[in-house]
Write a structure and sequence with these properties.
By secondary structure, the chain is of the alpha/beta class. The chain has two domains: 214 residues, Glycogen Phosphorylase B (Rossmann fold), CATH 3.40.50.2000; 155 residues, Glycogen Phosphorylase B (Rossmann fold, 3-Layer(aba) Sandwich). It is 44% helix and 17% strand. It is built from 17 helices and 13 strands. Strands 3-2-1-4-5-6-7 form a seven-stranded parallel β-sheet, with helices on both faces. Strands 10-9-8-11-12-13 form a six-stranded parallel β-sheet, with helices on both faces. Helix 7 packs antiparallel against helix 8 and helix 10 packs across helix 15. The longest helix has 21 residues. It starts with a strand and ends in a 12-residue tail after the last helix.
Length: 398
């Protein structure tokens, strides 16, 4: 069996963030084709149970913990380089040397690097085929956050967006194969060769995300990593802009905001009509307890896993055109699309008062994700990209 080295910027378990979810399922599927050595850079503690879960699919696991002092030094050094802040954040020279030693010892047939954050560690591994997963267009994601950021943060985001644009371009030539999560992100990435980046979507575990008939405690649900700015932005938009319009006509409508690491700003949204649950050990409990899923994403990039999960759980979903550009569900058939707060409020009230419409959207949405998003199929496509024999190991890049 061929050997694959996978390098990530977070440990891929628990599945509380989009990049971790993608890495976990890809590793699980790729273990059918490769003997996998997993290397993780992380600023979080990793326990035995987490490692045990990945050990089912990995031959060897190595975790490099970045301490708070190291991270502060990395951020300080970033001021004096042209590298993106998030690339500098995860880079440590001593770990670079150790990863080189792992590569020499493991002698992989292929290296798979998730996100540009980890590219510095393997870009100079010449003679070995390498794939980089851009996943989202990070530069565009940062750029979209600028208008809503504070005056202090805006200049930093502008610098980061420009550095990411340059870095996404420069790092391309160090890798033989390139992947990204959606057609939308492929079009947004700042690259002349963007059409050569293979689109590898996420999947959905249909057997796991199977709806159960339980009491509907909440009319509305929004969930996600609640310290991720696009999710924070959406939650604030729901509570401050959409709900007041809904309550003018349906005063008893309530909302559950679930998901890991809610910020202080999110916690302050809690009221008699809004519950902020924080991390749930089983996110299916949230989906089973709600009537409608709403994700009015205003900023951000990539494919929204929350929508795949909610649709698989037979929830009628309302989202933005921005989010559906990546999902590509049929509006008014598999999903409903809003733009203004009034649009979203009208759609919510219509679904609450029209059981047939809610059922039709929910069933069509489930059918769509079942037929379109499969971890097995997308990972098979990733394997084919990696094994493309028309590509050749990279030479040194000047």
């Amino acid at each position: 069996m061929k050997k694959l080295l996978v390098i990530t910027s977070r440990f891929p378990f628990p599945l509380d963030k989009g990049d971790k979810l993608r890495a976990y399922h890809q590793i699980k599927q790729l273990s059918n084709y490769y003997q996998i050595q997993l290397v993780c850079l992380t600023d979080q503690d990793v326990n035995h149970k987490q490692k045990e879960e990945l050990s089912k699919y990995c031959h060897t696991i190595t975790v490099f913990k970045l301490t708070k002092l190291q991270l502060l030094l990395n951020l300080f050094r970033a001021l004096f380089t042209k590298k993106p802040i998030q690339v500098a954040y995860f880079y440590q020279k001593k770990y670079h040397k150790k990863i080189k030693q792992i590569i020499d010892s493991f002698n992989p047939d292929h290296i798979y690097c998730q996100l540009v954050r980890c590219a510095e560690y393997v870009k100079d591994s010449y003679g070995i085929n390498k794939t980089i997963d851009y996943m989202d267009t990070l530069s565009k994601g940062v750029e979209r956050r600028i208008p809503s950021a504070s005056k202090i943060v805006r200049p930093i985001l502008r610098i980061e967006a420009n550095r990411l644009k340059r870095y996404e371009n420069v790092i391309y030539d160090y890798f033989d194969h390139h992947t990204i999560i959606s057609e939308q992100d492929q079009e947004l990435v700042f690259l002349e060769n963007r059409e050569n980046i293979a689109i590898i979507p996420n999947g959905i575990d249909i057997n796991y995300f199977e709806p159960q008939k339980k009491e509907k405690k909440y009319n509305l649900l929004f969930n996600g990593n609640m310290q991720y700015e696009p999710n924070v932005n959406s939650a604030l938009f729901i509570v401050k802009e959409i709900l007041p319009l809904v309550h003018k006509r349906e005063p008893n409508v309530n909302l559950l905001i679930s998901g890991t690491s809610p910020t202080k700003e999110i916690k302050q949204l809690a009221s008699d009509k809004v519950e902020v649950s924080g991390w749930l050990s089983d996110i299916r409990d949230a989906y089973n307890s709600a009537e409608i899923f709403i994700a009015p994403m205003q900023i951000g990039t990539g494919l929204q896993n929350k929508l795949l999960e909610a649709m698989a759980m037979e929830l009628p979903c309302i989202t933005s055109k921005l989010a559906n550009n990546a999902l590509q569900a049929t509006p008014n058939e598999s999903i409903l699309i809003g733009q203004t707060p009034q649009d979203y409020a009208d759609l919510i009230i219509e679904l609450l008062n029209n059981d047939k419409l809610a059922s039709d959207i929910a069933l069509s949405g489930k059918k769509y994700v079942q037929s379109t998003f499969s971890w097995e199929e997308s990972s098979k496509r990733l394997y084919q990209v990696m094994e493309d024999h028309d590509a050749h190991p990279q030479k040194a890049v000047n």
